[in-house]
């Protein structure tokens, strides 16, 4: 078995993928930032 055939038979294990809805990641990231900012403000940590 060569190195090429050994890597070709591997299955993906659920790591990050390069293709996907990037806009969804950006919206989720900014929503998280907003939630953390509101939490910090409400708790008076700033």
From TrEMBL:
Q: Which InterPro entries match?
A: SCO1431-like (IPR047816)
Region ranges (Disordered): 1-21
Q: Which UniProt keywords apply?
A: Membrane, Transmembrane, Transmembrane helix
Species of provenance: Streptomyces pseudovenezuelae
Q: Where are the transmembrane segments?
A: 27-45
Compositionally biased region (Low complexity): 1-14
Know the name of this protein? Answer: SCO1431 family membrane protein
């Amino acid at each position: 078995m060569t190195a090429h055939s050994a890597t070709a038979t591997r299955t993906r294990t659920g790591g990050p993928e390069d293709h996907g809805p990037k806009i969804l990641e950006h919206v989720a990231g900014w929503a998280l930032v907003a939630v953390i900012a509101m939490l910090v403000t409400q708790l008076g940590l700033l």
